[in-house]
């Protein structure tokens, strides 16, 4: 999806990836799983909404990168 990127918080992303693995590729934020919840889920593909925040808008990602950079100084 255009203007989105994977969340730059590596620790957070690692947790989400572990959830995806536990749920066989389905969004870890979903209780009910079906073909529409395979990551990237239909809600993200169709509406640009990623409830688990694995994919975030580019502008948010840039802010988060700056914040992470400042925390690591």
Task: Characterise this structure.
The mean pLDDT is 91. By secondary structure, the chain is mainly alpha-helical. It is built from three helices and two strands, in the order βααβα. A two-stranded antiparallel sheet has the order 1-2. 45% of the residues lie in helices and 8% in strands. It has one domain: Ferredoxin thioredoxin reductase catalytic beta subunit (Ferredoxin Thioredoxin Reductase, Alpha-Beta Complex).
Rough outline = flat
Structural class: mainly alpha
**Element string (H = helix, E = strand):** EHHEH
Q: Let me know the average pLDDT.
A: 91
Q: What percent of residues are in strands?
A: 5-15%
CATH first level: Alpha Beta
Main pleated-sheet profile: 2 strands, antiparallel
The Cα radius of gyration reads: 13 Å
User: What is the name of the CATH architecture?
Assistant: Alpha-Beta Complex
By DSSP (H or I, 4+ residues per run), the number of helices equals: 3
Ends apart, CA distance between termini: 32 Å
Q: Strands across the major sheet, in which order?
A: 1-2
The oligomerization state is: single chain
Number of strands: 2
The CATH topology label is Ferredoxin Thioredoxin Reductase
Number of domains: 1
CATH superfamily: Ferredoxin thioredoxin reductase catalytic beta subunit
Q: Give the helix level as a range of percent.
A: 40-55%
């Amino acid at each position: 999806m255009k203007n989105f990127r994977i969340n730059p918080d590596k620790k957070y992303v690692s947790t989400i990836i572990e959830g995806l693995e536990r749920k066989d590729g389905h969004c870890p934020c979903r209780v009910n799983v079906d073909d529409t919840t395979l990551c990237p889920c239909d809600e993200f593909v169709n509406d640009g909404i990623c409830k688990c925040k694995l994919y975030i808008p580019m502008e948010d990602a840039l802010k988060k990168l700056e914040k992470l950079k400042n925390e690591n100084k």
